[in-house]
Amino acid sequence: MAMLMLGSLSGCAVVAVVDTAASAVIGVGGLVVDAAVGTVRIGGKVVGAGADMVLGSDSDE
């Protein structure tokens, strides 16, 4: 269906549609990476806090 629609568009319109679709995919991919990095950071903080509780913190605060 989409190919039929693209076939009826001019060359510039096809490029614009493909460019918009690619930008949307890249944007979503960036959000997924940001979410994964955030999750790893939170997990690292939890593991670090647990290790501090078990081993004791070396800082003199």
Describe the protein in words.
With 61 residues, the chain is mainly α. It contains 2 helices and no strands. It is rod-shaped. The mean pLDDT is 74.
- Bulk shape: rod-shaped
Rg computed from alpha carbons, rounded to a whole number of angstroms: 24 Å
Total strand count, please? 0
Q: Span from first to last CA? A: 65 Å
Kindly name the structural category: mainly alpha
Q: Spell out the helices and strands N to C.
A: HH
Multimeric organization: single chain
In the predicted model, the low-confidence regions spanning at least 5 consecutive residues are none
Helices, by number, come to: 2
Sheet-strand content, in percent, reads under 5%
- Look at the structure and give the mean pLDDT: 74
Main pleated sheet = none
Helix content: over 70%
List keywords for this structure.
single chain, 84% helix, 61 residues
Question: TL;DR of this structure?
Answer:
The protein is 84% helix and 0% strand. With 61 residues, it is an all-alpha fold.
Write the SSE topology.
Blueprint: H1 2-7, H2 11-55
